[in-house]
Amino acid sequence: MPETLIFWGLSGLAILASALVIGQRNPMYSVLMLIASFGALAGLYIQLDAPFVAVAQIIIYAGAIMVLFLFVVMLLNAPQEDAAEWDRTHPLRQTGITRFGALLALLLVVQLTWALLQVNNVDVPVGAQGDPEALRSVRTLGRILFTDYVFAFEATSILILVAMVGAVVLARREGEG
Amino acid sequence: MDLRFIVQLAIIGFTFFMLINASALLVLAERKIMGFMQQRYGPYLVGPHGLLQPLADILKLLMKEELRPKGADRWLFTLAPILSVTAAFAAFAAVPWGAETTFFGLLDEPVSLGVADINVGVLVIFAITSMGVYGIVLAGWSSNSKYSLMGGLRASAQMISYELSYATTLAAVILLAGSLSLREVVDSQAGTWFGFIPHWFVFLQPVGFIIYMIAGVAETNRAPFDFPEAEQELVAGYNTEYSSVRFALFPQAEYINMTTMSAVATDLYLGGWHGPFLPPEYGWIWFLIKVGAILFTYIWVRWTLPRYRYDQLMQFGWKWLFPASVINLVVTAALVLFFHA
Hints:
The complex is a heterodimer.
Chain A: H1 2-22, H2 27-47, H3 51-76, H4 96-118, H5 125-128, H6 133-136, H7 138-146, H8 150-171
Helix pairs in contact in A: 1-2, 2-3
Chain B: H1 3-37, H2 53-63, H3 74-92, E1 96-101, E2 111-114, H4 121-142, H5 146-177, H6 182-187, E3 192-193, E4 197-198, H7 201-204, H8 206-219, H9 231-234, H10 244-269, H11 283-302, H12 310-340
Antiparallel strand pairs in B: 1-2, 3-4
Helix pairs in contact in B: 1-10, 1-11, 2-10, 3-4, 3-10, 4-5, 5-8, 5-12, 8-10, 8-12, 10-11
């Protein structure tokens, strides 16, 4: 019973915080709400008996990536969005890039709904292998990651490397180095 | 309520009490040691040899008026010091500070001295200390003052840069011990080589220990790396606009972080509560001595070395310390593989 209560509490917090990320005028508060959401997710991982994943979530997302977000928000000193300056036309009716973005967002909604509807038909990879210890032990997790899922792992690291190289290329000004 | 539960609560309460005391006494120790290094007495008037000075300081800070700048962000200005000090206290929860004990037969089964035994303890401490940076960054931003903002920006940049080297050196120790649990790391350091050299990881990881100490100074924002509050440049950095209790929480968090850093260094490199002469039940005395020695070194360094320049800090962190820690990790991994196979 307490587990169920904690589950609902944490998932409620995660959803509420995620909603507040976009429902916020001040970018600083958005960043903080995202951190709160990550924290709630970490709590859910602990409930799933996966302390390593929970701690990794905190270290990588809440501890490193969000500090960079905060850094950028502070450095740019992004102003509060002013409600009076809002364009009240619907994004899908606007022109150019906004419309494209709205279409992508719509696509994401469709995709997410489809994914949520499919959730019962999918084998959960680790759980399905019938070893509850697998997630708890860092050793097993590491072994699975570098044997069974090595392709996904390496593909992800190449993706991140590409993003990093791209950032360096973009950040380097003309005529330098 | 059974006895074991009460004992465990008592251990948690004791740890909390000791941490509060540590932060107060460290302020005094810092001023006393600084005084002796500068050939003067330091605080001397309140209590014998100035021993009650921290109490007087705390009373003074409690009595002060709380100020909040007009343009400051209301919520975050209050949240920031709370976040700082909470993260500082919470990080110590995963630090074991003594061997398992039955309290001289009081309990049937031994309990471990420390708040919580977590099987990924090293990572938990790392995760929580990395949360501490938000306190400083938010304090800097919410004050709505240029000095505070500069302090907050510097703090976040510095802490991200040094966290990398810090985590990489931790990984080398984890490889040696083969466990992420701090208690197991400590227990793998029991015993001696040739009967007299203690089996401490500092002898296997001398480079790692030095990198850990340097990164630790940078992570706790102390001189020679105290850029977030460099008083000659930024008045007082991120806590310029703070007063009274809200102000007091920042140095408290800093001193508790210092204690945690030293306690983790003791557990990882100096064999924790293992040491000669004392029976295992009294191992915590060794722990206290070792933590005290590291804390003294921190204070010693602060009053010996002048502050670097900010670009030197970044150069040193990225071009020297980080490569050194990566090489340390690779060499350690290779040697562990070689000797285990």
